[in-house]
Specification:
The protein is mainly beta. The protein has a domain of 46 residues. It is rod-shaped. It starts with 16 loop residues before the first strand and ends with a helix.
Length: 83
């Protein structure tokens, strides 16, 4: 079933034995990965975090004031005198 792990009875300097939190296999510390939940597991039991776990919050939209310039506010109808 998949890749064989290093024997826990062998000595590797700076490498200790640990237990996979998912499968409860005893493996070397250099073979385990840390998942996003904070647990340590072998690569066969590792899965990435789902994108639905981190929702995208939209940026607030900015509303600009309606600013008219002098040329836009006067039209031909405004330039005639009313009787």
């Amino acid at each position: 079933m998949g890749r064989r792990h290093t024997s826990v009875s062998t000595f590797n300097a700076g490498d200790s034995n640990t237990v996979c939190d998912v499968t409860n296999f005893v493996v070397k510390k250099s073979e385990v990965l840390r998942r996003w939940e904070g647990i340590y597991c072998i690569p066969a039991a590792h899965h990435p975090r789902q994108p639905q776990d981190t929702p995208v919050i939209p940026k607030p939209q900015r509303v600009y004031k309606n600013i008219r310039t002098q040329s836009e506010s006067t039209t031909e109808a405004d330039s005639f005198d009313t009787i």
